[in-house]
Amino acid sequence: MDLAKEVGKTASKKRRTIALAESITGGLAGSLITDIPGSSDYFLASFVTYSNDAKMNVLGVERATIEKHGAVSAQVAKEMASGARRIAGADIGASCTGIAGPGGGSEKKPIGLVFLAVDDGKSVRSERKVFCGDRWAIKSQAAVRLLELVLKALQSE
Amino acid sequence: MDLAKEVGKTASKKRRTIALAESITGGLAGSLITDIPGSSDYFLASFVTYSNDAKMNVLGVERATIEKHGAVSAQVAKEMASGARRIAGADIGASCTGIAGPGGGSEKKPIGLVFLAVDDGKSVRSERKVFCGDRWAIKSQAAVRLLELVLKALQSE
C-alpha cells in the first residue's frame, strides 16, 4: 500500500516514531503500517481499545469525557491520541473512534461517523468525517484517513 | 470471514470476552474479529505491541524473559497472552509474536517462525509454527491461526 510506504519513508527520514489508538478500525491501521518491511523501526504500538473500559484503563481516557460526549466524539479521539503517544513514548499519537454499523447509529451520530485525532507533542487536533458504505468500507476509509493524518503530521515536523 | 464469524457466534453463545496481544500480525487479527457486526459485545481490546518496550510497559512482559529467550519465543508469547487477558479483564487472552521478514531471520529463528499462546484463566498454552511465503502471507497465516486458537479455547470452555 503506497500510503503506508510513504508513512514509513517519511518516519524513517525524520526519525519519528508512531503509536496508534484504534477503535472503529479494530487494528486495520496498524496492520497496514506493519505490511511494510522495516516498520518496527518507527511503529511502536497500536492500542485497539474497542470497549469503553479499555479506552479508560489502557489509554487513560477520562470517564467524564465519555459520559459527557460519548465514546464517538472529538474529545475522546483527542484523549485516545494523547494516551497512545504518552504510553508508547512515541513522537506522534493518532487515533480514531466511530460507528461502523450496521447497529449503533442515531440521527445525531449516524453510521459512518468517525472522529480522528493526532497529537504531535505540540498540539492535539481532531477531525470529523462521515464515511459511506458498509461496515468494511467504513473501517477501510477510516484506516486510510488515519494514515493520511499521520503522514501529514510527519511531513509538517 | 467464516472463522471470525464462528469466533463471534461461539463467544456470544458462551458469553465470553476476548483480548489479543499482537506483535507480528500488527493488528490484523483484531481487524478480522471486528469485521463482524456486533463484535463489540465480546471483543474488548488488542494490544499491538510491536516494540519490546511496549511488550514490557503495556503488557507487563518481563525484561528478563525477553533477554533470556528473545521477543520471538514461547515464553514471551505466554506472558503477552496473560497480560492481554489481565489488563483488558477478558475471559480469554491470546497472542502471537514472530518474524515476518524479509529481515530479522536467523538459522535458529527463521523468517516465518511464530509463537502463539492462549490464556483461558486455567492454563496458558503456547504453540510454535513456521509459516511460508512473503511478509503478507506470514502475517495472514499467523492471524488466522490466532483466531483458530481463540475459537478452540472458546469451544473447550
Describe the protein in words.
Two copies of one chain form a homodimer. With 157 residues, chain A is of the alpha/beta class. The first copy, chain A, has a single domain (2-155), classed as CinA-like (Maf protein, Alpha-Beta Complex). The first copy, chain A, has six helices and five strands; from the N terminus they run H-E-H-E-H-H-H-E-E-E-H. Chain A has helices at 2-14, 28-33, 52-59, 63-69, 74-88, 135-155; strands spanning 18-22, 43-49, 92-98, 113-119, 124-130. The first copy, chain A, has a five-stranded mixed sheet, with helices on both faces. The longest helix of chain A is centred in the last third of the chain and has 21 residues, at 135-155. Chain A is globular, with a radius of gyration of 14 Å. The relative contact order of chain A is 0.19. The mean pLDDT of chain A is 97. At the A-B interface, helix 2, strand 2, helix 3 and helix 6 of A face helix 2, strand 2, helix 3 and helix 6 of B. Strand 2 of chain A pairs antiparallel with strand 2 (43-49) of chain B, so a sheet runs across the interface.
Mean pLDDT of chain A: 97
Give the termini distance of chain A in whole angstroms: 23 Å
Overall geometry of chain A:
globular
The greatest inter-chain interface is formed by: A-B, 39 and 39 residues
The CATH superfamily of chain A turns out to be CinA-like
Structural class from helices and strands of chain A?
alpha/beta
Helical content band of chain A: 40-55%
Major sheet strand order of chain A? 2-1-3-4-5
Rg estimate of chain A, integer Å: 14 Å
Annotation field: number of helices of chain A:
6
| Assembly form of the protein | homodimer
Succession of helices and strands of chain A: HEHEHHHEEEH
Total count of domains of chain A? 1
